[in-house]
Design brief:
single chain, 460 residues, alpha/beta, TIM Barrel, 9-stranded mixed sheet, 3-stranded antiparallel sheet, 14 helices, 15% strand
Length: 460
């Protein structure tokens, strides 16, 4: 037997405890100093090929069962490859990213899109309905993501398509879920109530880029007006109806304002009602100076600091253990995934949705055979043959099962001698595990205290 390449051992923040995590199996153990000694003896025996499986302690057997020690013949890289390709080949259901318009009411300097006034017409709506009906197999799942541009600038399209998609899923005995990516500027309580009235709404992702002063310099209207206060009011109005996830795009220009953002959200009573996470501003436009970008390592550090900050301030963080990936990464490499843009266009990736017809991967209006057929076939083939395992450094990376080379769109741009689009976990997995353990410990202590209070007699 041999040691797994994907073992991680991290000293916990609680004295006398060590966190053991395997990124291939996803197993997580909390070890005392005595148990850690047993693990060290097991590993020494594995390295000498001298494990006596009939004389293992309970802790040692648990390590074997959890994949920390594996059979000599097991090729862990093959396991990762099999998980991706087998999962991708057998994924069922229809994943649709619907872009009612590629127009936007904001002028953010770091945005990767070029906006136009393209909006779905009545004909587009009917064609997309037919397209979905033809491709949704019974007893599977229909997943919808509303995207843009800014989707709420074409809310009438959502009003027509949203109920139809849900009813289509019900008629096929399919599961259903939908979510929205929006800047939040037009998200009134009435719109949120309508969106939430369609069952199984997962979240609305809304961006607030740090402190109000930082946000208003980065995310302004086309008339150069600040947007922070209005978006915050809209979030508060929408929270009773739909889940909200606040995204914060970070670079060197706004990281100092992150504590102010959390303080403001807490003061507005949102700490227990919204999720907040960081996203890495990358080199999409020339409007952001190269010196303003954080490296991947720097972003991972900022992310860890932000997570601990949220924990100390009492935000509902709900940090989960990292989960080994299986199957496709996103809509881009989903075998039945499409990004539908106005004018009958289909793309594979969100990052392409603003592109013209000659960059499309297909059409939902039935015209693909007479419009750009050669180009469409070429674009489609490039995605159909996407391979996340071409990057040499990824072959030995200890978080590869959690990443699979990351974002396919970014990964495709990198040469084989470079990495894919690395997950921050490559650099901050120990902090992630420590915070998960700390939260679980605190929650367990609170639960025990509450249970004790319920059974103790009142002496008043």
């Amino acid at each position: 037997m041999k040691l797994s390449h994907y073992n991680h051992f991290v000293p916990a923040l609680i004295e006398g405890q060590t966190l053991a995590y395997n990124s291939l199996s996803g197993a997580f153990l909390v070890l005392s100093d005595e148990q850690l000694y047993e693990v060290e003896r097991l590993f020494e025996a594995a390295e000498m090929a001298a494990i006596d499986t009939t004389a293992l302690t309970e802790t040692q057997q648990h390590l074997l069962d959890a994949g920390f020690v594996i059979a000599d013949e097991l090729d862990e890289r093959s396991v990762i490859h099999h998980r991706y390709y087998d999962g991708r080949d057998h994924v069922e259901g229809l994943s649709l990213t619907v872009t009612p318009t590629v127009n936007c009411n904001f002028g953010c300097g770091y945005c990767f899109q070029s906006h136009s006034n393209r909006k779905m017409t009545a004909e587009d709506i009917e064609n997309l309905k037919q397209f979905a009906a033809e491709r949704l197999k019974p007893d599977t799942h229909l997943s919808i993501t509303w995207f843009g541009g800014e989707p709420l600038t074409a809310f009438d399209v959502i009003e027509q398509l949203g109920p139809y998609f849900y009813e289509l899923a019900v008629s096929r005995r399919c599961g259903f879920s939908h979510a929205m990516i929006t800047n939040g500027y037009l998200l009134t309580a009435e719109k949120a109530q309508f969106i939430g009235s369609i069952p199984n709404f997962s979240y609305a992702q809304i961006t607030l880029d740090g402190a109000p002063s930082d946000h208003d310099k980065r995310r302004m209207t086309l008339g150069n007006q600040g947007t922070f206060e209005r978006i915050l009011r809209n979030i508060k109005a929408a929270v009773p109806y739909i889940p909200i996830s606040i995204r914060v795009n970070v670079d060197r220009r706004n990281i100092e304002g992150l504590p102010l953002l959390l303080q403001r959200l807490k003061a507005e009573g949102l700490a227990q009602h919204v999720g907040v996470y960081l996203a890495h501003v990358w080199e999409y436009t020339a409007e952001v100076e190269e010196s303003d970008f954080l490296t991947k390592e720097e972003f991972a550090t900022v992310q860890s600091q932000f997570q601990f900050m949220k924990f100390r301030m009492g935000f509902t963080t709900n940090r989960q253990l990292p989960t080994p990936k299986r199957g496709n990464q996103c809509v881009a490499d989903h075998p039945n995934g499409y990004v539908a843009s106005p004018n009958g266009l289909l793309f594979n990736c969100w990052n392409e949705v603003h592109l013209p017809a000659n960059e499309a991967s297909g059409r939902y209006d039935g015209l693909e055979e007479i419009i750009y057929l050669d180009v469409i076939n070429d674009n489609n083939q490039r995605w159909a043959t996407y391979d996340p395992f071409v990057h040499d450094p990824c072959q030995t990376c200890k978080v590869a099962p959690l990443c699979m080379s990351g974002c396919p769109w970014e990964s495709r741009k990198n040469p084989t001698f470079d990495t894919g689009y690395c997950t921050p976990l490559r650099f901050n997995l120990p902090d992630h595990l420590r915070l998960f353990h700390l939260q679980a410990t605190v929650q367990r202590s609170l639960s025990m205290a509450e249970a004790k209070a319920e059974v103790e007699p009142c002496n008043v």
